[in-house]
# Entry
Amino acid sequence: MKGDSSSNLNNAVAIHPSLDKSLLYKVYEEAFRYQFIALALALAVAAAITAILVFILLGKVKSHSESK
# Structure
């Protein structure tokens, strides 16, 4: 994974030689951190939705079995 970002940094510096490599590295690190946070939030939302659906379905199953 680090090889990929290093090659991307080299390409970016080749395209824009005036850019500082350490600044680009910091930007890549920040982007990775935000991407990781977004993924964690998406997984948390998916888990919450799944839990709500399970509780709704369990409530329907329980009320259906009690009505018999």
Notes: The chain has a mean pLDDT of 81. The CA atoms of residues 33 and 39 lie 10 Å apart. The first helix runs from residue 2 to 15. The chain has one domain: 2-66.
